Amino acid sequence: MPPRAAAKATRERPAYRCTECGLTVAKWVGRCPECQAWGTIDEVGAGPVALQQVGPGPVTAPARPIGDIDVRAAKARPTGVDELDRVLGGGLVPGAVLLLAGEPGVGKSTLLLEVAHRYAAGGAAPALVVTGEESAAQVRLRADRTDRLHPSLYLAAETDLSAVLGHVEAVSPGLLVVDSVQTISSPALDSSPGSVTQVRAVTAALIASAKARNMATILVGHVTKDGNVAGPRVLEHLVDVVLHFEGERHSTLRLVRAVKNRYGPSDEVGCFEMHDRGIRGLADPSGLFLTRHTEAVPGTCVSVLLEGVRPLLAEVQALVAPTHLPTPRRAVSGLDSARVAMVLAVTERRGNVRLKEQDVYTATVGGAKVTEPAGDLAVALAVASAAKDKALPPDLVAIGELGLSGDVRRVGAVERRLAEAARLGFRQALVPTGSIERTPPNIKVTEVDDLRAALGHVFRDKVRSLSGVGTTPSGEDSPTGRRR
């Protein structure tokens, strides 16, 4: 082979790159040698033989002092959906690209149809919804059912990237919704729709169009069985905001979490409720997780959890029943099974609550997921209440993490949790010692050092605490059960 032909063949040899860590290798392998991820090596075309020197060229706009930049063009515009605006930090920023991911059937299309309708009804600019998973008639049926029709709301069913960009050119929308990015393909690439190459190319083209037109864009993304966004990891780096839409099929509650947000907080949570006529925001979702009884019921306790920075009240229920089986049953719903097993062991050993020959069932109300350690004390009190068949005060909340020694450990944002509990009518609270500096109004706070002190306070028993000082039946102040 002539030297020139050999050099040309060397230059045109394809290169392969890992979509997770960016490692470039000479040939395809099933597992990345750098990050050890499987199936992430993708062909990226011929690799350059040598770096070429690049000189200065023309600029699109001259650099200016940062104080002279006009920020009015990047001001967020409210979507009209208050809970989504809470998560976004005020609304949609013109030119921003959002990625909304969630399980199939959770309600992503319904939520975005609501957002597009509210945006179109605002009158500033039309909204365009491009669907690649449904026909236009199917989306129209959903719009009829939820009463989300507006003359400025445009709809197109396309799976070709060039056709999508053609619709954008014709409509000139202020908001573009693409449902979903995995169904759109570029005719310039030979790979199938949804592949890593296609998703990366389609996303890059839509981002370029959004930035050039100052058009807010929302991309719907699929998720894997692990709950992660499907496609290359670089997809989350390219977009400005990454939102996760969560919910259980058997519950009407839906949560929108901000995983990445360049324009606002990344720890906010928006709450929604699915109903027959679509989806609506829940400004006060705690009522879904509480059961109001006419009289006190044994085996129930309420705690205050944090979803992001938002305090939510959740009720924990427990049932303790005798068993004749050699191994008692432990059933959990809405709680972390490993953490509940630890709390049961601490309750039996440190709280002197006999559970050895008892079946224990624990659950939450309304489909709430209690994974935060701040709910440990509520679980322990609910189990003890069920075992003793004694009801806790109905206006009591319990906040605290349990250690293996039975001590009640501090958790964050206790004052914010207590303020939310007081707002909903709770008048008593058990918290870890030293966790608050100022007691919120309209609620009586009792600080406890350990589980025995907490049990002695709620049941008014003469229980001897781990530190050797007891709580009296009348509830008088003690070193392990101080009231504030």
- The percentage helix is 25-40%
Quaternary organisation of the protein chains: single chain
Tell me what portion of residues adopts beta-strand conformation: 15-25%
Could you list the spans in which at least 5 consecutive residues all have pLDDT below 50?
A: 5-11, 462-480
Quote the CATH topology of the largest domain: Rossmann fold
Sheet with most strands: strand arrangement: 6-5-7-8-4-9-10-11-12
Q: Supply Rg.
A: 28 Å
Task: Write out the CATH superfamily name of the largest domain.
Answer: P-loop containing nucleotide triphosphate hydrolases
Total number of β-strand segments?
22
Span of the ends, CA to CA: 90 Å
Structural class: alpha/beta
Tally the helices: what do you get?
11
How many structurally independent domains?
3
CATH-level-2 architecture of the largest domain: 3-Layer(aba) Sandwich
Estimate the mean pLDDT confidence: 85
Give a written overview of the molecule.
- The chain has 484 residues and is an alpha/beta fold.
- It folds into 3 domains: 3-46; 77-283, Rossmann fold (3-Layer(aba) Sandwich); 287-483, 2-Layer Sandwich (Ribosomal Protein S5, domain 2).
- 25% of the residues lie in helices and 25% in strands.
- The chain is built from 11 helices and 22 strands.
- The chain has a 9-stranded mixed sheet, sandwiched between helices. A 4-stranded mixed sheet has the order 13-14-16-15.
- α6 (196-213) links the parallel β7 (175-179) and β8 (216-221).
- α8 crosses α9.
- The longest helix is centred in the middle third of the chain and has 18 residues, at 196-213.
- The chain is elongated.
- The N and C termini lie far apart (90 Å).
- The model is unreliable at 5-11 and 462-480 (pLDDT under 50).
- ATP binds at residues 102-109.
- Residues 468-477 have a biased composition (Polar residues).
- This is DNA repair protein RadA.
- Residues 73-223 form the RecA family profile domain.
- GO terms for molecular function: ATP binding; ATP-dependent DNA damage sensor activity; damaged DNA binding; hydrolase activity; zinc ion binding.
